[in-house]
Amino acid sequence: MRNKAAxxxxxxxxxxxxxxxxxxxxxxxxxxxxxxxxxxVRRTRKGLLYRIHRGVYAVGHPGLSNEGRWMxxxxxxxxxxxxxxxxxxxxxxxxPLPNVIEVTLPGTAGREPRDGIKIHRSLTLLPSxxxxxxxxxxxxxxxxxxxxxxxxxxxxxxxxxxxAEFLRLPIGDQLEPDHTRSELESRFLALCRRHHxxxxxxxxxxxxxxxxxxWRDRRLAVEVDGFETHGTRSAFEADRARDTQLKLLGHDxxxxxxxxxxxxxxxxxxxxxxLLR
Length: 277
Description:
With 277 residues, the chain is of the alpha+beta class. The chain contains twelve helices and twelve strands.
């Protein structure tokens, strides 16, 4: 009788935990609740537990909601893991549901890759930038948008930010307008952030000229050339004359095209990193 009562107590505890976690539990949680590995194996064979990831199980049935899949991914990646990037944005309902679940771990060392989970590692993720939504550990809206700004196209990011503002999510004041005037400029600025380059000034004056991007301390100006505004002979000649004048003012000028910025961003980032060094 005592064993039956103990078993019922364990089953009740597991069911309550699973209900709080969208139907999933981790192996360590099962062990802490009194269900040891041999018992987990037996229940898995009987169809009472279903393996979702290594060390994570669905309780009762394998069908999970989006929240259940997100929770399972976070549990699979360890105690410090949080839902992040597009997945966090989907949980905050500011982007459509992505195909791959993204999770961030603090630091540089992390767990092995998991199927269906994209693991990010961050030295800048602070506990103050995380919270829980629907019981799921997740980056706060402001941090979620910071991550998105480095990893998605500018037009998609702008839509996500507008949605967050419409929902009155707490996104803080750090996401200031980037002051770009075109999609190509926005893409270049996103490239700088994604590759962790120093932030340039955007659309600022050097003498009589308005330059697209400026690293003032390095006296380096970057112009991004879209064909629609720089694809004629007169524009080509005017650009070169302008570059000469900027050189006389003590600034080096580098130009990147749409094809370079969109088609080979790593090469652009490597060039900039070398020049800024």
